[in-house]
Amino acid sequence: MRAAPQTEEEVADAVRQAAATGTAFEILSRGALRNYGRPVSADAILDVSAISGVVKYEPEELVLTACAGTPLPEIEALLAGKNQMLGFEPADWGPLFGEAAGNTTLAGIIATNACGARRFKAGAVRDHTIGCRFINGQGEAIKAGGHVIKNVTGFDLPKLMCGAFGTLGVLTELTLRVIPAPKRIATLVLKNCSAEAGFHALSQAAGLAADPTGLAYLPSKARAASAASDLSSSGVALIRVEGNSPAVVERLDLLYARFNDHDLATLDDDRTRAIFCEISDGGMFVSRSCDIWRLCVPPSQAHEAVELAGADFWYADWAGGLIWLDLPASEETAKRLRAITARLGGHATLMRASHEARTRFGVFEPEAPARANLTAAVKAAFDPGRILNPGRMYETI
Q1: Which option is the CATH number for 47-180: 3.40.50.620, 3.40.30.10, 3.40.50.300, 3.30.465.10?
Q2: What pTM was estimated for this model as a whole?
């Protein structure tokens, strides 16, 4: 069965009917990220792709409100017309799952917390989401937050919906703050750089007045599979800076002075955009037929985490705080990676794998009992009948 409501009211009606009959819904729009997360245990599909369009855009207030099913490229084009952008640098992970690029919707980005390379500098999706409308598991329409940046009304429900994978409510409308787009961007490349030296350099760069907005390391195999293939014969550390032209020149000068003992190169705007888009979107993995893990650890522990993980193909973002890994979805890998996070801090996520593997090994880091009880209580409050994307995050959630 497939329900395809055209309005928020029709979404609420569909959910109320489902709650009355105990019918579980898999929530879809364009389906670009359908295979990210555990397989959903549902009887029917709730297609919300028609809930689309920009509701209100106030460039002078740096605030945008749009329906949840609005395609991300439509929003980015609108913002670009006013020299603005989404501050968390949304990632387009659709191609990792065999979908066309540009097929992700605003709700898909919010629900999966799809942050790009600017995450370490600008914060996560939740830090830019200030309001939302959604339908809970009883078919009630709820509005939370609004058009103001500061929210002092109690529970910050818009942030709770970020990264919830549609398990708490059907998003219908979202309000986000936006930021001015930089007039110029550039990247300093530290060429022929070992992983240990590269992570050390990124850590140093993060503390400089150059104020980098992108810090990534590509070992030789990942570099060879990327838009950075011509930059070096070995690994490269990438430091992105932004601003007006004089500010970028000043920041590059500072970086050149600090890292003058390395083999250096500078990338212009277009090359910088291409490479960091690839880094954010996992582009080096699109043509690889492999399982994908994402390991989040303290940046200071990145080199040790890579050594312990033992992946032949990998790369790092967020100054080493995020490591993409080509490793099999197996019991041995799951135990090894989650032992690393237990030792170093952080979490391991099975981002891409077969239906069977995502069911058997789980996708997200197992929760400690106290947190699991809290998660279950929140799910029960929002969706007591477990009819919204049941099992998408954890078997019972």
Answers
A1: 3.30.465.10
A2: 0.95
